[in-house]
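Honest question from a wet-lab person: if I give you the sequences of every part of a complex, can you actually get the arrangement of the whole thing, not just the pieces? Trying it with mine:
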Amino acid sequence: MECKRCIEELTAFLDHELKPDLAKQVYSHVSRCASCAAELRSLKEAGDFLTVHSRELEPRTQSWNLIRARISAEQPAGSGFGFFLNRPRIAIATVALLTAAFSLGYFQYQENQREILEEYISRYEQDRERQRKSRTIFWDTQGVSGIENPYANNPFIEIKAVVDGNPFRSEGR
Amino acid sequence: MRSSITPRRCAVLLVALFLLSAGMLPVVSRDDLGRTRSLAETQHEIVMLLIKQKEYRKAVSEADKIFSMDWPEDQEPLLLSELRLLSDQFLRQGQASFSLQLIERNAKYFRTPESRIAILKEKGYIHKCIGQDDKAMEYFREAMRLEKTD
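Yes, you can. This is the full assembly:
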């Protein structure tokens, strides 16, 4: 066996993973070759060191928590939809609920607008009727009672205030 | 400080004085207003008689004369009440189309937002009376919008 091949198989040899024939060949080569024997020794020492100190090399819980926090912080932005992509039924239900809520809000708004407009129209109708009546009712200067206005239907006729029943006396005199 | 009397201003003043003396500028005195009112009063009676005789087309034409008279701006409320009154007269005779015609033809004489709003409301009311609810809503909505922005 050549040194190069022997070195390639040393790790497997130490781990008892080689077939018996190959293991024998490696063993006989290492017994004769000083450099391969040294290589085997250093590999064995490294293995022993890891076995003895493996507990000490384990990362602390605090470090794991830090790593976990960084991983979750670096998740892609669109991953929120991932929840829905993985659950189509919930996604459909959510869309249906949102649509229903929006429609309800819209119809409510329309209804409010309609009510406001109807109130506006009815107020105008009342005002109009009141104005029409005020044209046909003539209030005397004391504003006591209404009598039929003889000039009801002509807004251009100037009605002069009559004080104390004297048509020649002006108001304020 | 520069003098406020420039040759250009002097010329404008002279021309204005000349026009005033020649009676060419439309200055409405109280006497003129009284005369206009008196004419409108008579014209109004003519319109009312024509409506009574069911001569609606003629009535609208005669009514136009009232609004086209030389009215000072402060008389707009008076004209508005006349427009509403005549519109109401046509409407009570079942002549909504003439009522609308009267408003359409004379709306141009009304400039204040209050008058424009009142005209829109009246138009809406007429459309409502003849069962054109959608159109009525449109006019009332427009009036409401104007009232809010005013």
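Two things worth pointing out. Chain B has seven helices and no strands. Chain B touches chain A at residues 37-38, 40-41, 44-45, 48, 78, 81-82, 84-85, 88-89, 121, 124-125, 128, 136-137, 140-141, 143-144 (CB under 8 Å).
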